[in-house]
Amino acid sequence: MEMTQWWRGSEDILLLQGAVRSGKSYGASIAYIMWSMFQFNNCEFIFVGQTYNAIMRNVIYRLISVIKGTFKVTLNKSEGFMTVQCTVNGIVRKNTYWIFGGGKDGDHFKLVGSTMSGAFIDEAVLCTRDVFEECKARCALEPNAKIWGTLNPRQPSHWLHTEYIKKAEEQNVKVMLFFPEDNPAMSQAAIEKLHRSFTGVYYDRNVKNLWVAGDGLLFQIIADDPERYQLKGNIPAFSRINIGVDWGDGKSEQSLTATGILPNYSGVVALRSVKKDVKGLDHTKIMQSVVDFTQGIQRDFGKVSILMCDVPNTNINSARTAIREAGLNIPVDRAYKPPIEERIPVIGRMLGLDMIKYIQGESDNVKTALAEVVHCPKNPEVWDDTGTSDINSLDSFFYGWSDNMSQFSRIRSSELGGRVA
Ligand SMILES: Nc1ncnc2c1ncn2[C@@H]1O[C@H](COP(=O)(O)OP(=O)(O)OP(=O)(O)O)[C@@H](O)[C@H]1O
Ligand SMILES: [Mg+2]
């Protein structure tokens, strides 16, 4: 309720800080449309998220499905805007909402231009500070303009925390806090699952709603109880078996990991993981080691679907040739390598939900790497890659399923208690 009335107060900016899935984007975007439609006519507004696709997916499509009964909505995807229209006492009211991505350096240049009457900034911590400041500048000339932002907490040194949330009064900001229990669409079972899907610092941020920096072990949950992640009983049926390849160089070892993908992306099993010092080996021998590993996996676990390799491309091409010349009909491709800070929460979620298993005596390297990897002291959002743990095994394991990272990280609507579309 407070969310729909805050704009009557003197603050210019509302920041909805909260746990994931607590209903911030959903509730606030509807309130933003209501406010803008009843306070303004023939005016322009902003919707911005980390990327254009993210704001469309997290906010716009859902918003349209909710408001289309009350308003006439026209979405122009190619131009990146929508118009919303209604008729009050025979008089037509209509506003335009420009939709942008704001997570990359330089994204704020897209916002430069006309005066806006309001801005909705989804995932404000993932937008650049320039985008935030540009939204303020666009709204500065309209006395009744308001900025609405949603966010999950991050490291305490983040600019949005130090410059706006900590200085809320001085900056004329209203902060509202949200918790998973605040979302009426979440069943008790869904809330419990949400609690399990975050570990360590990500639990503190995304469930407890705290600004905390990462420190020490990244995946405490597997360090505390490695046996929980050991595959017990028979090898299950897989939809695919993929091999991830991380090439060694002068300093690091080569790592090869085969991973079984469970049906419906319900989890992964690290089947076998080997490390090899390749410093003294020529190219032919290195490629032969990949062929040997692949043949061993096919012999012991079943058909391999694909090899996903790190760059350089020359190595990928050589591996493709070696695999073909060995009579193996298996595609060899370049591994998908999203930024480390995006990988960590997905791995954490999968561990929390028991979606990762290893086989004792076969893929212990993966278990050990997960249990020992630590936050980078200089940038706690990424892992430390200075030899404190075995990042090569982590990488080759990850390349086996990174292509499907979004399927593994998706919170399905059925997990929200089946009560949302
Ligand atoms: N009041 C509500 N009534 C019905 N459904 C709701 C309500 N609030 C939220 N939902 C549903 O719950 C889901 C999560 O809501 P939303 O995306 O707004 O969460 P959020 O707090 O923005 O999460 P995140 O931090 O992950 O961005 C959505 O699928 C939305 O449709
Ligand atoms: Mg959201």
Q: Any ligands, ions or cofactors bound here, and which?
A: adenosine-5'-triphosphate, magnesium ion
Strand order of the largest sheet: 3-4-5-2-6-7-1-8
> Span between N and C termini?
23 Å
- Mean pLDDT comes to 93
Number of individual domains: 2
Question: Biggest sheet, in brief?
Answer: 8 strands, mixed
Gross geometry: elongated
The secondary-structure element order is HEHEHEEEEHEHHEHHHEEEHEHEHEHHH
Radius of gyration: 25 Å
Count helical runs: 15
Examine the secondary-structure arrangement and name the CATH architecture of the largest domain: 2-Layer Sandwich
Q: What's the number of extended β-strand segments?
A: 14
CATH fold name of the largest domain: Nucleotidyltransferase, domain 5
CATH first level of the largest domain:
Alpha Beta
Stretches with pLDDT under 50, minimum 5 residues: 416-421
β-strand amount = 15-25%
**SS-based structural class?**
alpha/beta
Q: In percent, how helical is the residue content?
A: 25-40%
What does this structure look like?
This protein is α/β, with parallel strands linked by helices. It folds into 2 domains: 2-186, 3-Layer(aba) Sandwich (Rossmann fold); 220-409, Nucleotidyltransferase, domain 5. It is built from 15 helices and 14 strands. The chain has helices at 2-5, 24-39, 52-67, 129-139, 159-165, 168-171, 188-196, 201-206, 220-224, 283-300, 313-325, 340-352, 364-372, 391-399, 405-409, and strands at residues 13-18, 44-49, 72-76, 81-88, 91-101, 118-121, 146-151, 173-178, 240-246, 254-261, 268-276, 306-309, 332-334, 356-358. The chain has an 8-stranded mixed sheet, sandwiched between helices. A 6-stranded mixed sheet has the order 13-12-9-10-11-14, with helices on both faces. The chain starts with a helix and ends in a 12-residue tail after the last helix. It binds adenosine-5'-triphosphate (ATP) and magnesium ion.
